[in-house]
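Technical note accompanying the year-one report. For the benefit of new consortium partners, we illustrate the data format agreed upon in the data management plan: each record pairs a sequence with a structure-token string. No post-processing was applied to the example shown here.
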Amino acid sequence: QRLALTVYAADGDTLYGPNEHRSQKFVFTLVSIEELQSLLYAKELNLRRRFEQIHTELKDLQQDLNLHRQRGEALATVTGEERRQAEAAITACAERSLLNVRKNAAEMLSIEVAFGEIRDELVNNAAQTPQNMARLESKILAPLKVVNSEGFPAVDVSLGLFSLANQKGQNPVAAIVRSEEDVARLIKSLEQVLLDIRELETFQELLELYKTIIDLQNEVMEDTKTQRKEKALRALEE
């Protein structure tokens, strides 16, 4: 169903007649609570995919840092062209890592905002329950706020120090180790949130399955009624 609203206003001009104005038409789609939950479930699935992509990219970053830490530790044993190539690779790692983490941070912030919008839609449409509010606010939104306000900034700082060490010609190993530690903590936090997101979606999947079963039962009942009516009509015709 759709609801169309137009705002009309007229002043009290008695000399030349009232001045009238109509706003543009606002069209709202009316959906049931079940339909709203299905729409929000689809939105959550998309957010989960984006979340998993960030997690994968951070795991790749972790491996990249580990590789270049080992290269940094080996700098003391190499000279000449081999050393210059190793230093260039380490510098590229720092720049690449900082760029990717900042991209991930911006994406994760948008995911937090999107989950907040899901919560608001449930509240605004009176579809909230103690269970779904607890899941969204305590298990997803609150941890994401910490991840975005503390986790990503910490990694950004440590990677910045890694890059600075390269610019100053210092051995970057200590800065890489700090970056690895901060990335590991961030990944651990994300994995806990991801686990809770998956639990939420498991609940929604069960709900969708239940609704599908009910719909199938209703279809079977309707088919049975139709067959009975047709059978009764044939009996009357005979």
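Partners are asked to follow this layout when depositing records. The chain is about 80% helix and 5% strand.
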